[in-house]
């Protein structure tokens, strides 16, 4: 699409910045950053998406932990260019990062079988007001458009949660309990979308709420996984 001439002309008047290193680039990533994407390759834990020595149904990190989603996958590790791309989404609201970089990467980690609706992890209204948009919704919309599955903002955050960074895994589960509600009934199998997965506590709680609201299953994806 678009001639090289037009692209060059557009670049002259509307120079883009690489989402990985902020240098001028003709696309969402410069050549160097595109080559340095921290791809999260198999073997992975089938349940939580963590790298494992070989494909396992559940790894030592998630065995015995209640996770309400069927499985989780991320195309990238949360480091380097992956971390920068999340930052560009979160603080820059760059829709083109979602459309040109994240959606094609996420489309590579989808589960087998039918998906009926794409739902983002919600942001609490007070955070939404401050930031102006929900980065998970940017991702979910871009992915939904790409794979031709309806987008629906089915979840809302009803309680502000503490910043998860300094909490333990058990503390995170406690922190998100009761933080989300579904907007009405949910039908079919849900693809739940967030930017980064760390312990899975937030996505698991969202999945629990969606199942309670009628979803037949929930599969979770995120742009990055903290490993
Ligand atoms: Zn770059
Ligand atoms: Zn695991």
Label this structure with key terms.
Rossmann fold, binds zinc ion, single chain, five-stranded parallel sheet, alpha/beta, 8 helices, 227 residues
Folded structure, characterized:
There is one protein chain. The chain is α/β, with parallel strands linked by helices and 227 residues long. The chain folds into 2 domains: 1-36, no CATH class; 38-225, Rossmann fold (3-Layer(aba) Sandwich), CATH 3.40.50. Helices cover 35% and strands 16% of the residues. The protein is built from 8 helices and 9 strands. The strands form 3 sheets. Strands 3, 4, 5, 8 and 9 form a 5-stranded parallel sheet that branches. Strand 1 (16-17) and strand 2 form a beta hairpin. Helix 4 crosses helix 6. The longest helix is centred in the middle third of the chain and has 13 residues, at 80-92. The model has no long low-confidence stretch (mean pLDDT 91). The chain binds zinc ion (ZN) (2 copies). One zinc ion binds next to loops. Residues 9-62 form the Double zinc ribbon domain. Belongs to the ComF/GntX family. It comes from Rubrobacter xylanophilus (strain DSM 9941 / JCM 11954 / NBRC 16129 / PRD-1). GO terms for molecular function: glycosyltransferase activity.
Short recap of the structure:
This protein has 227 residues and is an alpha/beta fold. It is 35% helix and 16% strand. It has 8 helices and 9 strands.
């Amino acid at each position: 699409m678009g001639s090289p001439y037009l692209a060059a002309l557009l670049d002259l008047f509307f120079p883009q910045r690489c989402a990985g290193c902020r240098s001028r680039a003709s696309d969402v990533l410069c050549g160097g950053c595109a080559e340095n994407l921290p791809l999260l390759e198999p073997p992975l834990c089938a349940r939580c998406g963590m790298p494992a020595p070989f494909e396992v149904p559940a790894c030592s990190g998630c065995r015995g932990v209640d996770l309400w989603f069927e499985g989780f996958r991320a195309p990238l590790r949360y480091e380097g260019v992956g971390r920068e791309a999340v930052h560009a989404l979160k603080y820059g609201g760059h829709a083109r990062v979602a459309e040109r970089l994240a959606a094609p990467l996420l489309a590579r980690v989808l589960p087998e079988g039918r998906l009926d609706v794409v739902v983002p992890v919600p942001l609490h209204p007070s955070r939404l007001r401050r930031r102006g948009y929900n980065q998970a919704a940017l991702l979910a919309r871009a992915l939904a458009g790409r794979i031709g599955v309806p987008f629906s903002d089915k979840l809302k955050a009803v309680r502000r949660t503490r910043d998860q960074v300094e909490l333990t895994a058990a503390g995170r589960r406690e922190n998100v309990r009761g933080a989300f509600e579904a907007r009405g009934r949910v039908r079919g199998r849900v693809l739940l979308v967030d930017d980064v997965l760390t312990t899975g506590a937030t996505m698991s709680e969202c999945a629990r709420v969606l199942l309670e609201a009628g979803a037949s299953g929930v599969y979770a994806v995120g742009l990055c996984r903290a490993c």
